[in-house]
Specification:
- Substrate binds at residues 101, 218, 265-269, 372-376.
- It catalyses: tRNA(Gly) + glycine + ATP = glycyl-tRNA(Gly) + AMP + diphosphate.
- One of its GO terms (biological process) is glycyl-tRNA aminoacylation.
- Homodimer.
- ATP binds at residues 250-252, 260-265, 332-333, 376-379.
- It is built from 18 helices and 23 strands.
- It is of the alpha+beta class and 515 residues long.
- Helix 5 (102-128) runs antiparallel to helix 7 and helix 5 crosses helix 8.
- A hairpin with a 6-residue loop joins strand 4 (87-92) and strand 5 (99-101).
- The chain folds into three domains: 1-71 and 215-390, 2-Layer Sandwich (BirA Bifunctional Protein, domain 2); 87-196, 2-Layer Sandwich (Herpes Virus-1); 412-514, Rossmann fold (3-Layer(aba) Sandwich), CATH 3.40.50.
- It is 40% helix and 25% strand.
Length: 515
């Protein structure tokens, strides 16, 4: 665990040093669990959003995108169930005076059991070498099987207790597992209580007449209340989807793990409207489509897994998370939920407006069912960033820090260098920048020796470096260096655009989803 913590500290420090993520209001000592994205972070975040939007909206003829308001009529949140049921189970330690989410304490305990399984797998893999069969080992090794049963039984019991709102049993489980305060080790706990996560605000010029509002805790409701507007104006036929990227706000009491759990965050959600009774098939289809989208970025299939929910949200009849292996273990990255007709049905009831679809094939009207895919932009950012940060041993006692971002998402696609700041080389390099900037985000750098410039761009995640030297003056060729392999190739400068495009064009990456 200590090693994981060290790795994660490196991720946080690298994100700041290279202009990716800063603490919000840092000059005033910051604001807890709120972050700002720097110049490289904003670019990476925008590229992630574009990669999702292209795959979700542009490549689907039956999915459209909207951008709904953050502030909504307060009855929206009554209808959605958030006023009554949007809670986290919290527990206080009487000695350290620290507050924790009870479910997270239990999940962290299970993560330690899973770490023991990983340790056993690593030992066996080393012992058996190429003959090692991981699946068979996981299924037959008595110690590993026992660990798996322990983990499964703990999560099942927690899920059942939370579903039944048996908070006393959640506390009993924490006590039976001997879970102590992560800070002090003390096991002196209060009872578990529910805490509503919505931020309240007011609308109106005077406090007496002001209306109580909430900052939206999710973007989905903006889609549901616009269901008829979009369906009619877009002449959409079921099945069809509405997608949205937008900010959401949750008053997380135990926000932690850098940008993984924040109070202000961004979501990429798509609600897919379907005939009642077809939800199982669409749920499975969207699970398959979404995992393929993640795999297309080439971050390693072993770093993803599905986790089916034991505890279903009040509106769902099936739910699964795509979990990613973050530096602190496998955690939720994206959720796929079969929401039935809960949302549209409830909004119909509370608004007294008919939210139905007339199906010409069936010649009947019904409230559509919904399958949702929902991913946190910030979590996706952290997954990409933490997975890409690597320390490489180059031999001869030298190492390099390299951020091997998927080239399609990298903030800067290429850096252009003159070998020296004279003999007309800077002018030539600037000419290449002028040509490339219409197609790619590129930068010019002439400071320090070329080797140091290469290292700087490696650490910033830039996939290509292009060096202009005296030979360029003679024959018009430049050196193109590839970040991941450090290989260098001599090419005519006219070919540079094509070489970069082959690596960074979204269509080449998204086509992998069809493989």
């Amino acid at each position: 665990m200590a090693n994981q913590e060290d790795d994660f500290k490196k991720v946080i420090s690298h994100a700041k040093e290279y202009g990716y993520v800063f603490q919000s209001s840092e000059i005033y000592d910051g604001l807890s669990a709120v972050y700002d994205y720097g110049q490289n972070g904003a670019a990476l975040k925008n590229n992630i959003k574009e990669y999702w939007w292209k795959a979700m909206v542009q490549l689907h003829g039956n999915i459209v995108g909207i951008d709904s308001a953050i502030l909504m009529h307060p009855t929206t949140w009554k209808a959605s169930g958030h006023v009554d049921a949007f809670n986290d189970p919290l527990i206080d330690n009487k000695d350290s005076k620290k507050r924790y989410r009870a479910d997270v304490l239990i999940e962290d305990h299970v993560a330690k059991i899973e770490a023991k399984i990983d340790k056993e797998v690593a030992k066996a893999s080393k012992r058996f070498g190429d003959a090692f069969d991981k699946e068979q080992f996981l299924a037959t090794n008595p110690r590993v099987v026992e660990y798996q049963e322990q983990a499964c039984s703990i999560l099942k019991r927690m899920g059942k207790s939370l579903e039944n709102e048996d908070l006393a049993d959640v506390k009993s489980l924490i006590e039976e597992l001997g879970i102590g305060c992560p800070l002090s080790g003390s096991k002196n706990w209060t009872d578990v209580k529910q805490f509503n996560l919505m931020f309240g605000t007011k609308l109106g010029a005077s406090s007496e007449n002001a209306m109580d509002l909430y900052l939206r805790p999710e973007t989905a409701q903006g889609i549901f209340v616009n269901f008829l507007n979009v369906q009619k104006t877009g002449r959409m036929k079921i099945p069809f989807g509405i997608a949205q990227i937008g900010k959401a706000f949750r008053n997380e009491i135990v926000a932690r793990q850098f940008i993984f759990r924040q109070r202000e965050f961004e979501q990429m959600e798509m609600q897919f409207f379907i005939r009642p009774g077809s939800q199982r098939e669409w749920y499975e289809k969207w699970k398959e489509d979404r995992i393929k989208w993640h795999w297309s970025l080439g971050m390693g299939k072993d770093n993803y897994r599905f986790h089916d929910h034991d505890k279903l949200a009040h509106y769902a009849d099936a739910a699964a998370d795509i979990e990613f292996k973050f530096p602190f273990g496998f955690k939720e990255l994206e959720g796929i939920h079969s929401r039935t007709d809960f949302d549209l049905g409830n909004h119909e009831k509370y608004s007294s407006k008919k939210l139905q679809y007339f199906d010409p094939e069936l010649n009947e009207s019904y409230v559509p069912y919904v399958v949702e895919t929902s991913i946190g932009v910030d979590r996706m950012f952290l997954a990409v960033f933490s997975n890409s940060l690597q320390e490489e041993d180059l031999g001869n006692g030298t190492t390099r820090t390299v951020l091997k971002l998927p080239a399609v998402l990298a903030p800067t696609k290429a850096a252009v260098f003159p070998l020296v700041k004279k003999d007309g080389l800077p002018e030539l390099a600037h000419g290449i920048v002028e040509d490339l900037k219409w197609d790619f985000n590129v930068l010019y750098d002439e400071k320090d020796a070329v080797g140091r410039r290469y290292r700087r761009q490696d650490a910033a995640g830039t996939p290509f470096c292009i060096t202009v030297d005296h030979q360029t003056l003679e024959d018009g060729t430049v050196t193109v260096r590839h970040r991941d392999t450090m290989e260098q190739q001599r090419v005519p400068k006219e070919n540079v655009k094509r070489i970069i495009a082959q690596e960074v064009d979204m269509k080449h990456w998204l086509r992998r989803m069809a493989d």
